Amino acid sequence: MSTRAVLVHGAWHDGRCWAPVLAELAAAGHDAVAVDLPSHRPGAGTDEYVDAVLAAAGPAGRVVLVGHSLGGLTVPVAARRLGADRVAALVLV
Known about the structure:
The chain has three helices and four strands. It has helices at about 20-25, 45-55, 70-80; strands at about 5-10, 30-35, 65, 85-90. The N and C termini lie far apart (about 25 Å).
């Protein structure tokens, strides 16, 4: 099973900001997805952000979690919830 890269944006962005990176990863044959954090929802916080990351990670397989800015605050919590057996790497941008 391949490792999925889960790219998490910062505040005032959405998953589209990762489009150039997703294109490069796809061209290299990697499985990657960009998360849209629910930051537009009033009252959404860490739990909702982590839930979005976990949904993108899927139910099984290894993941590389990549977080930029606000995403960098979210991915360590997601990594903790996923567990060391699922997280291949944690990248903070």
